[in-house]
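Appendix C: a fully annotated inverse folding record. The material below is reproduced so that readers can follow the format used throughout the book. The structure is listed first as tokens, followed by the designed sequence.
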């Protein structure tokens, strides 16, 4: 994934995050139970944090030029889709088995951040 494409994906991730946050706070507040609304809010929080993380990775990629950073960006985007996406679906539909998918998104986040650390570690001082 190029730096430019990662910035585009990050911006779209953040844009959708703002929209889902507003949708949850206004439209779903009256529809979802407090537990399901908390799950929705967790999805929004992780989406926003990792959207910003994708922007950071794009900036770091121009500095360090490590291929690991490109993989980290793709993995972080995949993490948003799997982690936040499964939580959005869980909160909206109540289908509990979707919660079993969520940890795979969390693992993608952890692996992406580990790649960022490794890319920085391997860079020349």
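Designed amino acids, in order:
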């Amino acid at each position: 994934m190029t730096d430019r494409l990662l910035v585009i994906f990050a911006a779209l991730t953040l844009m959708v995050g703002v929209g889902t946050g507003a949708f949850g706070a206004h439209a779903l507040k009256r529809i979802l139970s407090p537990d399901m609304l908390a799950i929705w809010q967790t999805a929004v929080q992780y989406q926003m944090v990792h959207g910003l993380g994708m922007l950071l990775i794009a900036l770091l990629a121009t500095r360090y030029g490590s291929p690991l950073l490109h993989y980290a960006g793709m993995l972080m985007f995949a993490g948003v889709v799997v982690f936040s996406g499964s939580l959005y679906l869980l909160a909206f539909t109540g289908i509990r088995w979707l919660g079993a998918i969520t940890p795979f998104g969390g693992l993608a986040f952890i692996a992406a951040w580990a790649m960022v650390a490794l890319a920085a570690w391997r860079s020349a001082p």
